[in-house]
Amino acid sequence: MNAGRSSNCRDRGVSADHERKFGAIVTLLTHCFVISVLAVAMLVLGESTAYAKVDYSRPVNAAPKQQDIGKTYQVPPVQRVPPRSLWIYGLDVLLLAVGLVVAALVAHRWRRRWMAVAISIFSIAYFGFYRQGCVCPVGSVQNVTASFVDSSLAVPLVVLLFFLLPLIAALFVGRVFCGGLCPLGAIQDIVVLRPVQLPPAVDHWGGKFKYVYLVLAIWFAAQPAATRDFVICRFDPFIGFFRLNGTAWLLSIGAAFLLVGTVVGRPYCRFLCPYGGLLAIVARFSFWPVRITPDEELDCGLCAESCPFGAVKNLRADRMTCLACTRCFAHCPRQQYQWGDIELIEVEQLVEAHREKSLATSKPAASTPV
Ligand code: SF4
Ligand code: SF4
Fold it and tell me: Distance from the CA of 153 to the center of ligand 1, in angstroms?
């Protein structure tokens, strides 16, 4: 009886602590959202001032001359295509900011897989097919690098925001951008059908490639203008699908990634994505990383086999490799209990049945909350 009461008190204490932390997250995310709205307002205002001065109907010297062609020829007015309206870039930033807030809420509060899937579908449709994979945080690494080394290049505000917002989110709440908002990650996520667990050494050493690629991409982007190369964009395996016009070999590589991705969860994200490497480094220091259980860790290990990305390490979601996909949440007995799917007694039975097995193969982290 006493044991039950103290367990209830402890639950309430953990819950209150969790609520407090979550309140802080919501406050921070709200601030990020307000900053994004201000940035969008600046962009829209910018469009009506700086960009309104250009006369796009003025003739140019290269146009055919009447005397060269014949007296009866009427030279048509030369028209230039105006730059794409800035409101669409403002909308991109707004959707990215709102998407990050929603993805954070899904990973930390609502914790439902179908919500993460809905975000993935939206991202593939909008950032993928409609916006044709551009502007994209993954490629923005190169723009930012080039603007650092070349004073004649200014990185557009939109690109800078796309580069920074997912990193800021990762610092606070983990890699929620990868959870579904990134179109490259989303297209791989929806093809994960029968994932196999790779040997940890393959994950560990294979995961180092993305850092090598990150360094190479920065090095190529930092070259002088004549030899500068944006290799991340040039070798993006999924852009051909989004633009419906890729070269045969790039489409084949993309198709191979998706085919392998049916059994090896998100191979591009895990082994190659340079921006994923950057996000992993930042997420290493995140204040509120993704956690599998909604409140208290039980070290039962029921979640370990549910992660298709090898991101559950020592019975915890690894900050650097967890992609915030929310798959493992439904396997946590504490989560099932919170949803009302099982009784408390069943939680204890499940934990007892699996803990021994999982402790034999894993070493639980020293402290509970990760
Ligand atoms: S690892 Fe890279 S490609 Fe994958 S979801 Fe994250 S940013 Fe996108
Ligand atoms: S630990 Fe694995 S399954 Fe769980 S949210 Fe992270 S990536 Fe998804």
Answer: 26
